[in-house]
Amino acid sequence: MGVYEIFIPFLVLIAVIATGGAVMLYRSRASAAVRMRFTSAMRDVSSPETLSNRGMVQTIERAATAVSLGKPSPKLREELARAGYFAPNAASVYLGLKTLIFLGSLAGLTAILLPLGAAVAPTMGAVLLISTLLSFVPNVVLSMRRSSRAGDIRRHLPDALDLLEICVSSGMGLDTAWNSVADEVRGVSPALADEMALTSLQLRLGASRSVAMRTMAERTGVDDVSSLVAVLVQSERFGTSISEALRTFAASMRDRRSQNAAEAAEKTAVKLLFPMVIFIFPTVFVVTAGPAAIQLYRMISGRP
User: Which CATH class is domain 153-259?
Assistant: First the structure.
């Protein structure tokens, strides 16, 4: 017994030293990783490419400030947010880009067309018209980006709802399940993952779930997200089962997606009619009726 009484404190001391060394090693590696990320981020921020991009953005912002009559409208900020541009200076960059395109097109077309010797008034009218049309290119790009982002969210939302329903049914809380689903869907839909992450951030900052969810619906502009928000808010208000509500809503969304796919398949025949009439039928007619037309011409003209 005396030998065991001597070795037991010694073994406990070794275990404590080993545990403490493991903890210190883990913390040193974590701090080293943080320092490495910080150094990499500082290197990226201070790189010439980043500084040149920042200078370009500042130039565009100054151009927007010089021509704007006031602050950007909330409607423009909402449209930019729906397209995925959440930066505070997104509206200024957008307006500045439109201004630079208009002024650049005006100066370039004037320098090209005026030396040609045409009349000044029609030439300047054409220059103003073309420059005005080119200044609407950012509007078209913004609209296409907004539609693409909304379509991506609408396409992947049913799968995210299935994952959310599975997590909630397995016993996870709604907030924890929401964060887990946001991490899982990031690989297939970064737009939906960003929206869910922003909603989770608002919840952590103290906003109520109904306010954060409604903000997400307004930010995305997708009807399915608005319906999901209404379902979650009503379930929380009336105390019904969130998993049952999510299961029912996910099933309805899957049925709606199947109906939309069937509708798109039915429209395919009508959409293919115009390319067939314009491109395929003339080619088929020339290939099939061309030799007969040549023979008929030879018979009428008396040539062999």
Answer: mainly alpha
pLDDT tens for each residue of 158-210: 888 888 888 888 888 888 888 888 888 888 888 888 888 888 888 888 888 88
CA dist 44 to 35, 50, 55, 280, Å? 14, 7, 15, 53
| Cβ pair 212, 219 in contact under 8 A | no
Euclidean distance between CA atoms 298 and 98, whole angstroms: 62
CA–CA dist 174, 163 (Å, integer): 12
Q: What is the DSSP letter of 88?
A: T
The pLDDT assigned to 152 comes to 87
**H or E stretch covering 215:** helix 209-220
Segment 198-252, tens digit of pLDDT: 888 888 888 888 888 888 888 888 888 888 888 888 887 887 788 888 888 888 8
DSSP state, residue 136: T
CA-to-CA separations, 52 to 46, 279, 298, in angstroms, rounded: 10, 48, 71
Domain boundaries, the chain: 2-46, 60-135, 153-259
Distance between CA atoms of residues 169 and 167, nearest Å: 5
Q: How far apart are CA 293 and CA 140, in angstroms?
A: 48
| Token pair listed for 297 | 């011409």
Q: Which of 39-53, 64-78, 125-139 has the lowest mean pLDDT?
A: 39-53
**The whole model's pTM is what?**
0.64
End-to-end alpha carbon distance in the chain:
125
Closest CA to 92 of 110, 68, 75, 113: 68
Q: Is residue 213 a contact partner of residue 224, using CB atoms and an 8 Å limit?
A: no
With contact defined as beta carbons under 8 Å apart, do 250 and 163 qualify?
no
Beta-carbon neighbour count of residue 157 at 10 Å?
24
pLDDT per residue over 56-86, tens digit each? 666 666 665 555 545 677 788 888 888 888 8
The first and second tokens of residue 235, run together, are 């379930």
